[in-house]
Design the sequence.
């Protein structure tokens, strides 16, 4: 009981000390307006020029140089190998970070390195196209990186032709076993 009473007295003392602190008064500062207001000029926008060059870079920092920015599947058969790769090198002086990669539709699925690519290192971006779809295709992959503010665009193209009729994929059991 004595411990509880001592604890209660201690809490009352602390509370009293906290409320006993003096409040500082803050004098409001007068608002001073300039004699002449200068109008804010809008920033001059520089037109963006798209280049077909395989290298994408900024001054200093990470630089992403591709062997090619367009992969041509050519004329392929339905259900053939969907995987193609884009090889690139970080030619900059800072780690390259790929933040996101997105295909232009669900039939184009990119896969990219999640860890930083150090200066001088090379890596690949894998792309899979749904080769079950028959007909010509022309798709894009949008990369968001720390190289520049504008996304980097990669392209795939080709034509998927219907697979010829032939032998079944799995041998049939003709003997009934």
Sequence:
């Amino acid at each position: 009981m004595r411990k509880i009473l001592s604890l209660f007295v201690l809490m009352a003392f602390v509370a009293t000390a906290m409320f006993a602190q003096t409040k500082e008064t803050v004098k409001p500062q007068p608002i001073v307006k300039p004699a002449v207001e200068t109008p804010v000029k809008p920033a001059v926008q520089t037109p963006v020029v798209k280049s077909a060059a395989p290298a994408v870079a900024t001054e200093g920092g990470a630089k992403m140089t591709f062997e090619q920015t367009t992969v041509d599947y050519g004329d392929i058969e339905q259900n053939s190998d969907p995987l193609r790769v884009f090889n690139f090198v970080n030619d900059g002086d800072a780690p390259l970070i790929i933040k996101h990669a997105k295909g232009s539709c669900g039939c184009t699925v990119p896969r990219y390195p999640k860890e930083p690519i150090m200066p001088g290192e090379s890596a690949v971006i894998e792309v899979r196209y749904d080769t079950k779809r028959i007909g010509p295709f022309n798709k894009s992959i949008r990369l968001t990186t720390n190289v520049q503010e504008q996304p980097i665009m990669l392209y795939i193209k080709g034509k998927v032709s219907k697979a010829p009729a032939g032998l079944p994929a799995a041998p049939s059991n003709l003997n009934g076993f």
